[in-house]
Amino acid sequence: MTDQPIKIFLADDHTIVRQGLAKLLEAEPHIKVIGEAQDGREAVNKVQKLNPDIVIMDIAMPLLNGIEATRQIKKLLPQTKIIILSMHSHDRYISELISLGASGYLLKDSTGVEIVKAVSAAMKGDVYLSPSISRRVIDDYLSLKKTSTREDLYAKLSNREREVFQMIAEGHSTKKISDVLCVSPSTVKTHRANIMEKLQLDNITQLIQFAIRLGIVDVQNQDFDS
Amino acid sequence: MTRIKQPKPAGSPVDVCKLQEDLKDSESRYRCLFEGSKDMIFITFKDGSFQDVNQAAVELLGYDSKADLFSVGSAEKVYHNTMHWKVFQKQIDRDGFVKDFEAKFRKKDGSLLHCLLSGNAVWGKDGNIIGYQGIAKDITARMDAIRNFRQRHHELLVLNSVAFAMNKTHDLNAVLEIALKKALEVLELKAGAIFLIDHDKHIFVLKSQHGLPAAGTGKSSQIQLHDKALMTSLLEEDLVLIPEPIFPPFKAVLLSPDGQASIELTCFLITAKEKACGFLALDAPPDKDITSGQDFHLLGSLGNFLGGAIENASLLQTIARHREELKGLTARLFQSQELERKRIARELHDEAGQALTGINFTMETIEKELSSELIHIKEHILDVKKQINRTYHEMRRISYRLHPSILSDLGLEPALDVYLADISKHSDLKIDFKMVGFEDRVNPEIESILYRISQEALTNTLKHAAAGHFKLSIIKSYPQIIFLAEDDGIGFDAGEFRGHQQALGLLSMRERAAMLGGKFTLRASPGNGTRIRIEIPIKESAYD
Ligand SMILES: Nc1ncnc2c1ncn2[C@@H]1O[C@H](COP(=O)(O)OP(=O)(O)OP(=O)(O)O)[C@@H](O)[C@H]1O
Ligand SMILES: [Mg+2]
Q1: How many Å apart are CA B349 and CA B31, to the nearest integer?
Q2: B542: enclosing H helix or E strand
Q3: Reported ipTM exceeds the 0.90 cut
Q4: Could you give all domains of chain B from N- to C-terminal order, each with its CATH number?
Q5: Domains of chain A: which residue ranges?
Q6: Residues B19-26: what's their mean pLDDT?
Q7: Would you call the peptide bond into B243 cis, given omega within 30 degrees of 0 as the criterion?
Q8: Residue A170 phi/psi, 5° resolution?
Q9: pLDDT of res. B485
Q10: How far is the CA of B84 from the centre of ligand 1 (A)?
Q11: Any residues with CB less than 8 A from the CB of B51 and at least 6 apart, and which?
Q12: What is the pLDDT confidence band of residue B264, given thresholds at 50, 70 and 90?
């Protein structure tokens, strides 16, 4: 700990929560609450002015929610640590906010001790999570994100390519596709080549199989384990 | 009696005797044939004056006796069209005969006799034509039948085209348009109109017109019935139509917009269920009577027929309007339900939840500041904190069930992920879920509708399917999002699902899909699982 107290900013739309929190934190000698906001937009504005070390932020807030406020503050002031104090315990919230750069995620039933622990961890550059949140879930999620499947590749297709993809999969000829889309057959062929490349497919059979697996083509009896 | 060729003059007297005998014999046979014929037979001299006629001719032409007919003077006089007599003569002069020549004769009373006429020349001894002989078959009845048949045929044609138009379109204006066009065509008229009665505004409204320069369609028009009493009762809807197959025609004048010119129209009432709903107004030239005979009959039938069409069209319009209203109401209901749920969920979560959180923190501060003598109170404080915690979690659960805030906070994919993971935890059902092709979040309405539809689909699978596997995929294709929910359970007879009065699940899925302009397809059959596919159009450009 340094001699300087840790400057903390509270963002929560509920006065009662802010008051409770402030009381809890002010009881700690090395912590000072330097400001409060009751919605996300106010938080972003005040944080820029007050430049706290740590922002303790709720997710559910009017005007701008905590997720967006976190995104904006981390962009404007990357050094500012953000600890989320939320009622949401879903993994998806946690991983989303951690990936946005939050330094801690606490549930609202956390004890004062935990909050103080999270503050110290954040000051050291660590990430602190409520004990009830399994760390493994986060690791799993973050690692899962890296492996890219063909389905992820599909997201890289442009709208026009998706349209052509579906029509090819439905068995339409190049001529028909070019008629429907009012483009030349050679344009359709170019689209097709781009689609095959983007999806890393070798032939039309694979393309059709993939479309069926996705569920794009409305087939009568689809093999369930495909 | 002369015949085509005179027999050669006789030779010896014995022969003469025999020949005269024979001649008499054949003459009487011929006379018998001549007089017994039901067809009219006449023989004239070269100039057309009668030499002989048979009894049938006298009767068919309506004369009292042969002498009566002869007093007419010449055959030419009994022809309806003297040209026909001339043609008859000319052809026989040239060819020696005519065959199946259609001609009309004028009867004594002036009416016409329609005949099929054949004839040949009467030769003189010198080989010159000295007269004509004709045999005419009365085909008046046949011609009447044919005309009748043609008329019927036309009538059917008109009614058929109207029926066809009715089948093809529910647009009343199109039906009226066709009906008017056909009626004019068949009656060989140039101008006419159809007016409907607007019982609310008490006016005649011009719905369709042809060839009336004065009239502009749709305008409340300047039509005046000659019969003012009839006009009033039509407009006031108090006309009682005694079940009469066809209401008598009536006259009206159509004024031009500037009130200057006017056209007289002959009108035929259009009726439905013994109520007048409009009329056909036709511009018939003075020499054409459409108020009697076949034309009248046709117009009467058309009036009845159009009445049915008008009633159908207005019923369909009402149904369509009600369906639209219902659709709008359903959509509004869903929307307000969703909004209300969201509001309550938020209130519970935020207001009550946060209050509890605050209280919890305050309790903790109190706990810390408590002096050690009051240690027994600590236990109570702990108790209160536990209760707060339980209440807090229960409230969050309720709030989540009402409206998962994760849906608005993070989007459809995380929300469904969390929802499905939760179900998975509590059942043996294997759940596959993927969302493919979504780089950004889609609009919140689509998100919340797809969320509710997914919930309903999975609920059905859990409730009814006894399935081992549930698959949910949402793919962003273009120009639509494809939603697919399927299970490998027992399935059901999809054709019967309409019959379920209480079941709302499938219906609400379909209605929700309709709110997004989506196409809902249900494919299910006993033993083959259940599959729901919804295609929702997206409004993005092809080149994003
Ligand atoms: N996945 C399914 N597998 C087997 N049967 C199904 C399935 N989904 C629906 N059904 C059959 O279709 C009927 C109608 O379904 P629907 O969801 O409309 O009503 P419900 O589930 O009976 O009642 P509600 O959804 O209104 O609570 C069901 O009662 C059931 O018989
Ligand atoms: Mg149901």
Answers
A1: 121
A2: none
A3: no
A4: 37-138 (3.30.450.20), 146-314 (3.30.450.40), 410-537 (3.30.565.10)
A5: 6-144, 150-214
A6: 82
A7: no
A8: -80, 0
A9: 96
A10: 84
A11: B43, B44, B45, B131
A12: confident
> Nearest-CA neighbor of B176 among B315, B278, B26?
B278
**Which tens digits make up the pLDDT trace of B297-322?**
878 888 888 888 888 888 888 888 89
Q: Residue B190, SS3?
A: coil
CATH architecture assigned to A6-144? 3-Layer(aba) Sandwich (3.40)
Give the architecture-level CATH label for domain A150-214: Orthogonal Bundle (1.10)
The token pair at A68 is: 């967006």
Is A85 in contact with A9 (CB distance < 8 Å)? Answer: no
Q: What confidence tens digit (pLDDT) does each residue in B458-514 have?
A: 999 999 999 999 999 999 999 999 999 999 999 998 776 665 567 788 988 998 999
pLDDT of residue A226: 36
State which H helix or E strand residue B314 sits in: helix B293-346
Strands (E), B164-222: 191-198, 203-210
| Residue A147: both structure tokens together | 């492996």
CB B44 within 8 A of CB B50: yes
Residue B6 predicted with pLDDT over 70: no
Computed over every residue of chain A, the mean pLDDT equals 86
> Residue B340 and residue A144: Cα distance in Å, rounded?
37
B322-361 tens-digit pLDDT = 988 888 888 888 889 888 998 898 888 777 887 888 888 8
Q: Given A23, A92, A218, which is nearest B361 (Cβ)?
A: A23
Q: Distance between CA B387 and CA B393 in Å, rounded?
A: 10
Q: How many angstroms separate the CA of residue B342 from the nearest CA in chain A?
A: 13
Residues of chain A with pLDDT under 70: 1-2, 134-148, 219-226
Q: Which residues pair with B530 in a beta bridge?
A: B487, B524
Highest mean pLDDT among B47-51, B221-225, B234-238 belongs to B47-51
Ligand nearest to the backbone CA of B494: 1
In the block, which residue shows the tokens 């009894």?
B55
Pocket probe mutation, ligand 1, options B455, B461, B464, max atoms within 8 Å of Cβ? B464
Task: Give the residue carrying structure tokens 């027929």.
Answer: B305
Distance from C-alpha of A26 to C-alpha of B322, rounded to nearest angstrom: 65
What's the CA gap between B508 and B435, in Å, rounded? 22
What are the backbone dihedrals phi and psi of residue B269, each rounded to the nearest 5 degrees, phi first? -70, 140
Question: Which residues have CB less than 5 Å away from ligand 2 (the ion)?
Answer: B 460, 505
Count of CB atoms situated within 10 Å of the CB of B94: 10
For residue B526, how far is its CA from the centre of ligand 1 (angstroms)? Answer: 13
Residue nearest to atom 25 of ligand 1 (CA): B505
pTM score, whole prediction = 0.65
